[in-house]
Structures are given as C-alpha cells and as structure tokens.
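fwd from M.: "can u put these together and see what the complex looks like"

so here's what she sent:
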Amino acid sequence: MAKKVAFMQGNEAAAHGALYAGCKFFAGYPITPSTEVAEVMSVELPKVGGKFIQMEDEIGAMAAVIGGALTGQKALTATSGPGLSLKQENIGYACITEVPCVIVNVMRGGPSTGMPTGPSQSDVMCAKWGTHGDHPAICLVPASVQELFEETVRAFNLAEKYRTPVMVMPDEIVGHMRERIVFPEPGELEVIDRAKPTVPPEQYKPYDTQFGDVPPLASFGSDYRFHVTGLNKMADGFPTTKAAVVQAEEERQVRKVEANRADIMKWEEYMVDDAEVVVIAFGSTSRSARFAVNEARKQGIKAGLFRLITFWPFPEERLLEISKKVKAFITPEMNLGMCTGVVKGCIEGNAPVHGIFRVDGEPINPNEILSKMKEVK
Amino acid sequence: MAFDYDKYIRPGKLPHIWCPGCGHGIVMKGLIRAIDALSLEKNNTAIVSGIGCASRLPGYMDCCTLHTAHGRAAAFATGVKMARPEMNVILVGGDGDGTAIGGNHFIHACRRNIDMTYIIMNNNIYGMTGGQFSPCTPTGAKASTTPYGNPDPAFDVAKLAIGAGATFVARGTAYHATQIDKLIVEAIQHKGFSVVEILDDCPTTYGRRNKYRSVIEMMNRLKEVAVPVKAAEKMTPEQLEGKILTGVLHKIEKPEYTAEYAKVIERAQAAK
C-alpha cells in the first residue's frame, strides 16, 4: 500500500508527530505562531481517547502537562516566546522532578511581545538558560515539515528515555510553511516508552540510582505511591538539604543528558569534507544556507553546510574538529549572535566566525550568505 | 478504640514542620478521618499542594503526593484529574498560595467545575516566608510588610469561590475540629469543584504581631466569630456584625468537567 502523503503545515506536522509518538495529553494556552499545534490536538486527541485542555495561562498549561505526565501519559504543550518565558518556572519543576514532557516552542521575535508573526531564532538560549538553577537541556531545531514531524517523535523518545522535558523549536517559517510530508507507517519510526518500575511497590523509590542515572518512573494511580516535590530531594523523593545528596543529585540530573550526548545530538554535514568555508545554520536559515552552498560550489568556492538538528546538546566536539581544517565559519541566524557565540566558545580560536544576524522578521536569504562567503573565502 | 492515623501517615516522615499552636495539623487529622470515612483507596488518591507551610501536608500522607510550585497546585491537579479522572484529587494549601499567586488557577478551577476538593487553610498570613501579609490578611492588621497596618482590603475566599463557579463551598475553623471531617467528607463526595476554607491560626507570624497573647486566645477567637449558617438565619444584622459563617455555604449541581470531556471524546469518536 502506498504511504500516506499530505501537503501540510509545520505546526500541524508537529501535532501529528506527537500523536505518532503516543501523546495522549495536551494542555496549552493560545499564542501565535504556535496555535495550530493546539488546534490539531483539540481535533485529534479525543478521537484516540486522549485529553485536550486549554488552560487559563501558560504557567497553568505547563503545570497541567506535568500533572498529566505523572499519571503515565505522554504529554505535550505548544507555545511561543512570551509563553516560553512564563512556562520556565514549571519547566524547571519538570527538570528537577524528572517528569518527561515535550514543549513545542515556535520561535517568534522577542524579547517580550516582540514580533508575534515574525520569524526568529532567538529562543535557543532560553531553551538552555531560561529556568533558574542547573539542569539538563535538550532542544531540537528542525528545518522542514517532514523533519518537524520526525523530530517531535524523537523529542518524546528522548523525554521518555531520559526523564526530562524536551523542547522542539521550529522558527516561525518552519512552523508555518506548507510542504509535502510522507507519513511514516506505525512501527517505522522508533517509539520509546518510559521505563516502569519492576520492584515491589513498598521498595519503589522514584530517584533510586541503583537503576542508573535515569531511574524508572511509576505512574500516579497505579500500584505505586510516591512523593514528588520541586525541592532538592533524596532517592525516595522527599526533601533534603544534605549537602552531599543535593550535590550528587544535581550532578546526576545534568549527567544523564551530558553523558548521552552522542545518543541525543544530531546534525547534518553537507559538502563539509573538503570545505574551506563552512556555514553553520539551523531551521529555515539552513535552507537558505544550502542554496548558498550549491551556488558557491558552482562558482568555485569550496563551501559546506553544517546543519544543527539538536541545538542542545551542542555538537562542540565535531565543530572543534572541523575548525582545524577550514578557513572560516559563517553563522547566519535570526537573532543577534546566539549560535555564533556558542560556536566561538567551542572552536578555540581555530578559525574566524562571521555572523549574519537579522532580527527584523525577514528571513536570511541565500544571497546574503553567498556574499559573505565571497568576502571571507 | 482510638482512631488509627498511622495507616495514612508515611512512616518516618513525622514530626511535621508546623509550629506549636498551628492549625494545620488539626486540618490534616480531619482530612485523614474524612479519607478513612469514605474508604478512599490510597493508590487512587492524589494530594496536591503548592508552596508554604500548609503545602507540606502531602509529604506526610501515604498517598500519591505532589508538592508543586508556588500557587500552581490547582493547575497541576487539573492535569492529574484530566488525565486520570478516576483518581480522587485533593488540593491543600494556604491563603497566600491559593488566592494571590494561585488566584488565577483557583478561579478557573472553580469555573471548570472539575471534580476535585480544595482545602484552603486560611491563616491570614504568609507563614513560611516569615509573616508578610496575604490577600486574606484583614485590613489594618500587622504583618512583616505592613508595619503600619495593612492598607489592602481582604478577599473572602468562600465568596470568591462561589463567584468563580465552584459548586460546593464550605467553611470551618480549626477550633471546630469535628466539623472539619464532615465538611471534607461532603466536599469530596460532591461531584464538581469543592472548596473547603478552614480558618486556622498562625501564632508565630500573625498572632505575635497582632496582640494575640496565646494560642488559646487565638483559638477562642475562632470559637467566638464562627456562626453556623443555620443559626445565622435567625440572627439580626447587628448580631452578625464581625461574625463569620461556617458550614456548607453553597451547594449546587452543574455539569462536571471530566464528565463533559468524556462526552467530547464520544462525539469525536462517533464522527471519526
């Protein structure tokens, strides 16, 4: 049988990706340009017996997502810029309590209300540093409708596997563009469910490190009773201020992601092998960059593209390696240098990094990148 | 035979953090007796709180317990109940947590009429942060941030809940301990969002600043101001001056949220 093919918007694809991954709970608050995710979920979830709830605000939406996830369901919310700011307190709560959930944040201009329908890539730092305290961060930055579907599935997998919130962050262009999408058949993409406890209920501890850095998570309403708190906690979930325990727990929570960077990180290299100029880009900007690389090659410039698919964890090691062989990097991005700064931080000064920054709501076009290539080659 | 509270208390989690004379322990005992009277299954009962002294209650209870962020208990609980409507969901917290930072979640939980019970322990103050005034602190009262007397008007929690759409609203006091059990039992049995406001006292951060010389004096004040709704019907406005009504203040039937959503699922599946 032929596969189901559709012409679909990015945001709609994110919702369908969530459904493919087994999402059964959505709580959200309307905000442009992410609303289509909520709208599709409101249509589709009840069909599969899932629940959709529009909460009173972004904070409540994130809280409800965590509550829903604690009952064992895969839970999603969708938001954009100011909504992401409001959600941060409870994203931190999901980090410290280690409750899996997925946040689709469609990036618009900021700070504050910024440019509600203008594209932007300026939330990538918010994804890592938005909530206070030390915590892990996983952030995926897809560049096409197809990839937004697939990366949303992977976001649920990573959330379940590592017991942590995961962010999917298309820029507004990727969120709102319409493209051909080929739906994977059930079973074609991997779908991971969280590990459930196997110990008897009386022995269960929600943060028991004898099961590794990612202990199994029971569900509220099952045979297991346990305590969940946003306070620093012991293995049994109860609060502690004991210095050694707090230190070890905080380190474990970050380590469970950092030690698995290789499993989580994803990028694409396009003509990088012999490249003298490498463009590092993500989201819609990477599509302009690919066009620019093709044009440059036609004109005899040895250009390549390094496309980020995960923004966090950031592929520092690979970029350091590449930096030893190239003359220059170009980092076009719809912000004032967030990615550029991270690149500079990891390549140890091996090559100059030339940023192209736009925050005016206009996409970065291939010519801007091509001109920069000619300038720096 | 003495009531066996141990069945509902987590071994090793006592003593609690509450100060001598605090009313929260009385409320917890009332909640335990209510859970026992209704034979609620511990595995199927979630107790959810935000931040503050009262919000530490779930940690002592041997149920599915969730101690969340400041003011957000109602929103977390809504997620739990929505995802698993067969669970009994009980919220506990203080007046600051529930009506200030949590005010928005509180009124919307009332509006939805989602089948949960919210026990608000109203001690008129922020206890855990050291006695700053709350939306329930009486006008003129002293708090650590109202050293010249509180200029703010106070919320009436019960009226707020009724106005926002809660379908069961009751009020009790920590002095009237046996009434607490009855009110909580009736609130949990009610199909819809039920609110039980329990006036209790904070001798440490409220009484001390407001000339209540002892816990006994504070408790006696609760005894004196409380008037059962039935008795109030026969009293004149003059007699009711300065009094606070207790008992079941509001009880109506309205569609319950998770039941309504079950119908949404039916309609969606029929249309598929």
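replying to her w this: The longest strand of chain A covers residues 23-28.
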